[in-house]
Amino acid sequence: MFQALYNCFWWERLWLPANLTWSDLRDHHGQVFAKASDLYFTLPLAFLFLGVRRLFETYVATPLARLLNVKEKVRLKATPNPILEKHYTSSCKHPKQADIEALSKKSGCSARQVERWFRRRRNQDRPSLLKKFREASWRFTFYLIAFIAGMVVIADKPWFYDLRKVWDGYPVQTMLPSQYWYYMIELSFYWSLLFSIASDVKRKDFKEQVIHHVATIILISFSWCTNYIRAGTLVMALHDSSDYLLESAKMFNYAGWKNTCNNIFIVFAMVFIFTRLIILPFWILHCTIVYPLDHYPPFFGYYFFNLMMLILQSLHIFWAFLIIRMAQKFITGKVVEDERSDRDETDNSDEEDEKPVAAAGSATKNGPLTNGHPVLNNNHRKVE
Asked: Which end of the chain is least crowded, N or C, by CB within 10 Å?
């Protein structure tokens, strides 16, 4: 049964144009072709990336954060309360009014104190500024190096200047060593992003990020197996061209360099819109949808590859909408803020005069702040 499923999955009509077989893509006469088995190498390499990232964040990003004077925001902590903590961890982090009233009776606290406790408890779970800076530093470093490497790989190739040549001789197109390593490193990095996404900073577009990583991994893997390597390298380099700008804008934002952050963000917005909404659909997608039909009739692999490309294009339109909203705020004089990010919730000033929630059954009114912190304004509006 396993062998039957294996043969069905690797049926040549799914992956290759008509009248071509896997034997046509075997190494011969000095020509080397991509092999599906090569993709196994990306999994251990992904875990290696996670290890390198840990070292980078500890020994490079953290000292850099100190050098740039990245300061942590002081957050008021929620006073330990078993009743409210149990509801927070097991039921809901945003209780409804009926739940607040019920918890107020159980804990002996006022409804306003319960609301404030949940706000502070949610703020405690939000990632620190240092964590955000470290993540942005790691991604900036990779995307910048990957973009430079990608341009080195493709800039001297004839199909970089004439997209019709992407399909010359397809699918019998030999693979270059530079293309091999470019694919392995890019795919391994996206595997590492998928593995770490649960522990990374979560934003409002978390689901879209998961879809993006999965679609990218499928697209890179599928293009490798079907020898769409020339088109694949173009797509990867195009995506890396703007990502490092966004990550650098985040880094300067966390460091408090607002003018530098805003200027880089405007450059990023222009590059993103030009590459993702103009070059990708009107050049690259045109290259992968129209030009192949001059060389072979459509087959499953042709439709599947372009379906994944269209999914990525849809995500780019979604993100472009958020980016344009942020750019409008900047142009109109409002402070730029990342539409995807959650920011700290602020306690109302009149509530700060009350004593924070105490342990169950021991709450009293008009007591001093137990942690001794003054009233804070946490409503910082930044890019990230």
From this structure: N
Q: Residues with Cβ < 8 Å from 153, sequence gap 6 or more?
A: 176, 178, 179, 182, 233, 237
**Residue 291 CB coordination number (10 Å):** 17
pLDDT in tens, 84-94: 888 878 877 88
The first and second tokens of residue 228, run together, are 């769409």
* Interatomic CA distance for residues 98 and 107, integer angstroms: 14
- Selection from 164, 148, 156, 169 nearest residue 20 by Cα: 169
Cα 70 to Cα 62: distance, rounded to the nearest angstrom? 9
* Residues 6 or more apart whose Cβ sits within 8 Å of residue 288: 228, 231, 305, 306, 309
Which two structure tokens, joined as six digits, stand for 291?
A: 């030009």
Q: How many CA atoms lie within 13 A of 196 on its CB side?
A: 19
Scan for tokens 């396993």, then name that residue. Answer: 2
Tokens of 147: 């973009």
Average pLDDT rounded to a whole number, residues 227-232: 91
Diameter of the chain measured on Cα atoms: 86
Instruction: Provide the whole-model pTM.
Output: 0.77
Instruction: Locate 319 and state its tokens.
Output: 């993100």
Token digits of residue 63: 């000292």
pLDDT of residue 344: 52
Task: Return d(Cα 345, Cα 125) in angstroms, integer.
Answer: 12
Q: Which residue type sits at 338?
A: D
Query: Side chain identity at 219, as an amino acid letter?
Result: L
Q: Is 80 helix (H, G, I), strand (E, B) or coil?
A: coil
Task: Tell me the chain's radius of gyration from C-alpha atoms.
Answer: 26
